[in-house]
Target: Prepilin-type N-terminal cleavage/methylation domain-containing protein
Amino acid sequence: MTRVGHQTGFSLLEMLITIIVLASGLLAIGSMYGAILNANTLSKQRSEAVVLAEKKLEELRGQSYATLVSATDTVTAASSSGSSANYQRSWSVATASGGLAYKDVGVTVTWTDNKNQSQNIVLSTRISNVSATPVTIP
Model:
């Protein structure tokens, strides 16, 4: 008499399917890792560019109204990770039309990212020709 028993354990086919599913999942995670690193690097570079533009705007706000002129400079900023990028920083100063006492100031920071594509950040503000006078409280 032949007795059919209940088998326990995994078959070879089940193991192969499991290995294929796990391998494809690991490959997907591995391919996303590179994209995440590139996005992280670009984010750091954008943050550095914004800081450089804000610093220049603050420098221009500190100058006297009459000395505000357009110009360009090159800045190398080291990031916290140790990598650095060369940033081209330019600013334009335009006197407002209609006799208004302010100037439109724009700062553009341009750099080349890891994929060799040009990136830029633009910040703008208005600087008035009003001199601050100290207020005394009696």
